[in-house]
């Protein structure tokens, strides 16, 4: 494989993004027509784009990527790695595809907590029954100057919605969430007509392809899955400067 520096990799990804915005070539359209039926009923190929490496064509299904040859005779599942630099080209591409426009997030349906000056901002998808979320919530106690928007994403069990509604309908929902996630203190049972935006949050998570909790989204649109530690979180914030 031809050696690619980080600069040429960035350029290649830029070219891919540009080509995605343009009409697909007859060759790419032909490949799409051949590949789509082979991926299973109901699977929609969003685009086929020729890559700048190894003569491969990228087949994109949402934010997932696979590859094929120019005649669509073979499908390649897995990551393309630059053997010279050990750069995972597929991961770079899928990270780009999974980016979120932070300003478009409906923060009005998220819980909000602020520590210090709050200048560092993240959004998190969390489930009240998620042990990793609880671990990460404790990690956040060691991070200064942070604003956290929490989307209560009830996907783990039926009981998740019950717990979340009780928290959402509390007098201080932000405190009630922390009480539960940090100390295991359950909120009192919700009464009356209080409703939480569960359907809107589920739709948002589906749209953004959030498949697990916690999922952390940064202001540059990138995301990190799982309960990362303070060191990884601080490194990510440093990279945003």
Automatic annotation (TrEMBL):
<feature type="domain" description="Disulphide bond isomerase DsbC/G N-terminal">
    <location>
        <begin position="23"/>
        <end position="90"/>
    </location>
</feature>
<dbReference type="InterPro" id="IPR018950">
    <property type="entry name" value="DiS-bond_isomerase_DsbC/G_N"/>
</dbReference>
<dbReference type="InterPro" id="IPR033954">
    <property type="entry name" value="DiS-bond_Isoase_DsbC/G"/>
</dbReference>
<dbReference type="InterPro" id="IPR012336">
    <property type="entry name" value="Thioredoxin-like_fold"/>
</dbReference>
<comment type="function">
    <text>Required for disulfide bond formation in some periplasmic proteins. Acts by transferring its disulfide bond to other proteins and is reduced in the process.</text>
</comment>
<dbReference type="Pfam" id="PF13098">
    <property type="entry name" value="Thioredoxin_2"/>
</dbReference>
<keyword id="KW-1015">Disulfide bond</keyword>
<keyword id="KW-0732">Signal</keyword>
<dbReference type="InterPro" id="IPR051470">
    <property type="entry name" value="Thiol:disulfide_interchange"/>
</dbReference>
<comment type="similarity">
    <text>Belongs to the thioredoxin family. DsbC subfamily.</text>
</comment>
<protein>
    <recommendedName>
        <fullName>Thiol:disulfide interchange protein</fullName>
    </recommendedName>
</protein>
<dbReference type="InterPro" id="IPR036249">
    <property type="entry name" value="Thioredoxin-like_sf"/>
</dbReference>
<feature type="signal peptide">
    <location>
        <begin position="1"/>
        <end position="23"/>
    </location>
</feature>
<dbReference type="InterPro" id="IPR017937">
    <property type="entry name" value="Thioredoxin_CS"/>
</dbReference>
<dbReference type="GO" id="GO:0042597">
    <property type="term" value="C:periplasmic space"/>
</dbReference>
<keyword id="KW-0676">Redox-active center</keyword>
<dbReference type="InterPro" id="IPR009094">
    <property type="entry name" value="DiS-bond_isomerase_DsbC/G_N_sf"/>
</dbReference>
<dbReference type="Pfam" id="PF10411">
    <property type="entry name" value="DsbC_N"/>
</dbReference>
<keyword id="KW-0574">Periplasm</keyword>
<feature type="domain" description="Thioredoxin-like fold">
    <location>
        <begin position="115"/>
        <end position="235"/>
    </location>
</feature>
